Structures are given as C-alpha cells and as structure tokens.
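Annotators were shown the component list below and the corresponding predicted structure, then asked to write short factual statements about the assembly.
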Amino acid sequence: MVSHKGVDYAKILKRYDVQSQNEASPQAIAEKMLVKDPVLRKVAETVVWKQFKDVVAATNEALKTKDPLVVINDGLVNGMEVVAKLYADHIYYLPDIMMAAKTMEMGIAVAEKKIAGGRETKGLVVMHVAEGDPHDIGKNIAKVMLTSTGYSVIDMGKDVAVDDVVAMVVKEKPMLVTGTALMTTTMTAFPRAAEKLVAKGIKTPFMSAGGAVNRDFSESFDLGIYSQKAPQTPPIADKIKAGYDWRKIRAEWENIIGGA
Ligand code: B12
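Structure shown to annotators:
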C-alpha cells in the first residue's frame, strides 16, 4: 500500500490561473496606477469602474478646486490609462473599454466647458485619425488641449482616407496637421499623406501621434514631427506659430516639449 503521508500537495496541485488572478486583480492594478490626490482619484475611479452615472458629479466636485485641464489629464485620462492596462492584461474586454471611454468622454464634456480661453484664434490645426483606425480618444484629448490654448481645430474624425486629409490641408492651409494611429497597420498612412503634400509644394508640419508611432518613425519622412502626449501639442504649435519649420521643431524637440 502506498502511503501519502508527508506529501506536500501544494507542490503538485498548483492552480497557476488562480495565483495569477489573485496577483492581477483589477483592484490591485488600479491601486498601483491611480492618481494619489483623493479628489482626482474619485474622478479617475468612475472611469476605471465604468460609473457613468457618477462621473459628472465627481468631475463637477473636482472642478470646484482644480483646473479643468488637471481634471482631464490627471483624473479622467489617468482612469483611462488604468483601463488600457486592464485590457492589456485580459481582465477587461472590448465592451468594458467602450463603456469606460464613454464615461471619460462624459467627464471631458463637463470639464471642457470650464476651460477659459479667448475667442481669438492663434492658428488653424487639422486633426484626424489614420485610415482604418477607430481609436480617437487620444486625438479628442489633444483637441481639447489645442482649443483650450487658443487654436482653432478642424476635426476630421477617425478612419480618414489619406486623400481626404491631403484635400483638406490643400483647401484650409492649416499651420499644423496631426494624425493619430494606435494600430501598427494604420500608421503607414502618415508618410503616404506627407509625401502627397510635399508633391503639392506644401510645407505644413505633419505631427504623428498615438501609441503605434514613436519619434523615429514620425521623423522618418519629410514634414514629419512627433508628439507623444496630448499636452505636448500646444507648445509645439506655439513654436510653429513663431515661425519654426518642421526641421527646426525636430532639432529643438526636447527643449520645446520641456516637462509637458
Ligand atoms: C480604447 C481602445 C479601443 C476602443 C477605441 C474607442 C475609441 N473611440 O477610441 C475600441 C473598442 C473601438 C477598440 C477597437 C479595436 N482595437 Co483597440 N484599444 C483600445 C485601448 C484599450 C486603449 C486606447 C486608448 O484610448 N487609450 C487612452 C488614450 C488617452 O491613450 P492614447 O490614445 O494612446 O492617447 C495618448 C497618446 O497616444 C497621445 N495621443 C493620441 N493621439 C494624439 C493626437 C495628438 C495630436 C497628440 C499630440 C497626442 C496624441 O496622447 C494621449 C495621452 O496624452 C488600446 C490599448 C492601449 N494600451 O493603448 C487598444 C489597442 C489600441 N487596440 C488594439 C486593437 C488591435 C483593436 C481592434 C483591432 C480589436 C481588438 N482586438 O482589440 C479594434 C479595431 C477594429 C477596427 N479596425 O475598427 C491594439 C492595437 C495593436 C497594434 N499595435 O496594432 C491595442 C494596442 C490593444 C492591444 N494591446 O492589442 N479599441
């Protein structure tokens, strides 16, 4: 008869799935990533937990003591960063991020109204999300940054054909055109658009942004400049307004974005 005495079952029957679930509970992930300020945290949490009934109240509460851009960037966007991590870890699925994104947008709509800003425009920016790409949350945030600092924006939306972007730039002659790509399959639209603009003699800087692109890629074609985060766009736009061309923006990029 075989004796089981002294057998350590923990070494044989190990539930790796349970272990990893415990390590990566959504609460634990959120705890690590959420902003520490309690008022902003409340705002961020409504996004993380998809509490669209509470986001407006939490945002309004935060707006009593905080600047609207802080509420957007450090509260609502912080929540969305947690959501992106939960999605990457296969804890959240597409319906979750769509509800979280909707919650964030409701908060942004409230905060946006409180942003002071003169009506006189500093210049026109054409913004779009690359052909085939539906990810427009980052672009929408960058748009808020630009309009709140005095720029006018023509927002072409998402999944915009290269030729439509080129036609818009030819027609409207903006000081800056931005393109967002979160998918590696869509980012190639930017060099194609820039090439067509160059062929038409257009010198407008073409800013690539979004998770799929990096600085090397964005500067690999004529006109191309880079912006990693939405708040970096206004300081870059200010330099273009001051007369910098795309080559000079590239050369002084680190200095221009500073801590933004
Ligand atoms: C939300 C989301 C969606 C939403 C988008 C809703 C919307 N309206 O945007 C929905 C559900 C529609 C979606 C769909 C898909 N998605 Co998706 N999605 C995401 C997710 C989780 C978060 C993106 C996000 O909004 N983050 C929050 C914002 C604030 O961040 P952001 O966009 O990066 O913006 C910041 C910067 O990039 C920058 N920025 C962005 N734009 C701009 C513009 C300017 C001018 C400036 C200056 C800065 C700037 O500033 C922002 C912060 O300051 C990412 C995962 C991730 N980690 O990014 C995947 C992700 C982008 N999706 C992905 C994929 C594959 C898809 C799908 C194909 C299906 C799928 N299996 O998930 C479909 C697309 C189908 C199609 N072709 O139509 C992949 C892309 C992989 C790749 N490298 O190609 C990712 C990376 C997930 C993954 N790890 O697989 N998705």
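Statements collected:
1. Strands lie at 124-129, 152-155, 176-180, 206-209, 224-226.
2. The radius of gyration is 22 Å.
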